[in-house]
Amino acid sequence: MNILFVHQNMPGQYRELVQWLAATGQHRIYFLTQRKNAPDLPGVETRKYQTHRTPAKDAYGLSRVWEEATGAGFGAAVAARRIELQEGFRPDIVVGHVGWGELTFFKQIWADVPIIGFFEYYYNITGGSVGFDPEEPISDHAPFMMQARNAVPLANIETVDLGHCPTYWQRDRFPRSFHDRMYVCHDGIRTDKLLPDPDVSLGLGRLNRELTREDEVVTYVSRNLERTRGFHIFMRSLPRILRERPNARILIVGGNDVSYGGKSQHPGGLRAEMEAEVGKNVDWDRVHFLGNIPYPLYQKMIQLSRCHIYLTMPFVLSWSLLESMSMGATIVASDVAPVREAITHNETGLLVDFFDPDAVAAQVVKVLANPQDYAHIGKAARDHVVKEYDFLTKCLPEHIEQINALVPSDRQIKMPES
Question: What one-character DSSP code corresponds to residue 125?
Answer without folding.
Answer: S
